[in-house]
Amino acid sequence: MEELFVPEGITNIKPIREIIYDHIRQAILDGLIKPGQRLVERDIASRFNASRTPVREALRKLETEGFIEYLPRKGVIVRGFNLQEIEEIYSIRKSLECLAIRSAIHNITPAQINELRGIVEQLEQLENGSNAQTAYYGLHEFDDVLINAAHMPLLKSFLSTLKESLQRYRKINLSSLPRRQTAAREHKEILQAVIDRDMERAEMLICQHIDNSRNELMKKVNQN
Q1: What are residue 71's DSSP bridge partners?
Q2: Which domains does the chain have, with CATH numbers?
Q3: Which of 42, 123, 189, 217 is 20 to 30 A removed from 58 (C-alpha atoms)?
Q4: Highest mean pLDDT (candidates 85-89, 121-125, 193-197)
């Protein structure tokens, strides 16, 4: 389990159970640990030079958050993808982001528009094959600028929580170069609608982008 390697000295920063939790969680989100893969307490404890107690505590937290599950005669495995959950998450995302764009259109500043322009220019490099991680952070940054422009603190908080659930799914989607290229074009169109202060078109484009993302993800999950 090389993806769980801990740099020397990091255990001085916070409790070992939190370090184990953080590393396993991030490895799952990044796709380094796959759905259905077993997590063996003994192996994890050895990797982190820890006893099994903090490993169990970390695994319990991951189970509570839905990342792993305990199966009879199999032990701990990474939880697979749930189509109903995907549908629900993307429906909520669409409702919240459409609300955000309606408010952002009225409140966005020239400085924020310039910031979006810079992000879109970076996203356009995806046409040349930038990796999924670069795409993920670029799209995440674009979303953050629009959400900040909306001036709706509660909405921002809700979306921040939702993005925790979305992270795993978005990274799977962006592992595909065609999807990265499409997402870059979609965000360029969204930006133009924002510049034009065309609320109806901006909302339509946001909805289309989210629907396309969900449909692409569903296709990938069904293929697996």
Answers
A1: 75
A2: 16-78 (1.10.10.10), 83-223 (1.20.120.530)
A3: 217
A4: 193-197
